[in-house]
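Internal ticket #5521
Category: modeling
Description: The requester needs a full-assembly model to guide mutagenesis choices. All entity lines are attached below as received. Residue total reported by intake: 353.
Assigned to: D.W.
Attached entities:
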Amino acid sequence: MKDKHITEILDNVSIAALSESELNGIRAHALECMPCRDAFEAARLSAVVIKSRVEATIEPSPFFQTRVMAALREQQAVESVPAMLRLWRSAKVLVSTMAVTTAALAVVSFIQPSTTPVAEQTASAYSAYSVIMDQNPDDQMSYEQVLSTIYEDDEDAR
Amino acid sequence: MDLDLARQAQAGDESAFAEIVRRYSPRVFSVASRFFRQRPLVEEAAQEVFLKAYTQLGSFEGRGSLEGWLTRIATNTCLNMVRSSKRRPELTVSDLTEDEQGWLEHQSAGDGGEPASVENSVVATDLADRLLSVLSPEDQQALLMIDGEQASIKEVAEATGWSESKVKVRAFRARRKVREAMEKLLSYKRAGSER
């Protein structure tokens, strides 16, 4: 072992599982080989911290059994309720809100417009026309008036 | 005995299931403690294990021990919990605390004795978590069980459901990575003390 690097051995088995003769062989090699000495030191310290980590175990509290039994009863209670009822329980607020909103929209769409007077609608249409065309429809010229105006202009020109 | 208890619990006998919880919660907590260090997380995992065990009681055939069966459920449940949570950041040597540097110095100077005080144990455990963070949750478990709890390859294979060769590969890879990470910490410590 003295001439052979020891990193393979260190990675293959836990240091705690090595026999005393194996450890002596590793130490003898590590004395003369700097990289193996560093590797052995690191493996030794790693083993110490891992042992500490495993020893840091949390014990169950005295109430743990009660807690588990309560969680189990809760789970059984949930499972005993039919699926559709569970779905309704979780979705009833959403469904009710949607129903109220739909009803409100129906009132706004079908009842509100019929209360507006017809005359007002016409007036609005006329006002829109006058705004767009920049004239009152009553002031609009007839076809004959247009023709006579054109011909009058021609005669004046001659 | 285990099988009778399991059958009674499966038949709806609450006191039988309460007895299973009472008898095996130390073992389940021990498994969960390998994965988590905070009590609320360990308790949450242990509760999840027993609720799962209750629904799967029918699959326990009594060929092995109830403790072994629960250990397997606990290991897989905790592995799933760790996988679904965010991975911890990888090891950085620059953020070694003073206590950790002191602990490494003390251990390097001595002959590797056990950490003497509670404070030392906490520092060593913190260091272990720092080193283990370079590993996957599965490799961590293989290393903690074999090198920490002195479990055999066969016992790890039974507890995890992995093949024995897979356990060996995981343990080998984990040991090498942790050793290299520790070498990195030691070289950083040396460089720091030379400055």
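Resolution: model delivered.
Comment from assignee: The radius of gyration of chain B is 20 Å.
Ticket closed.
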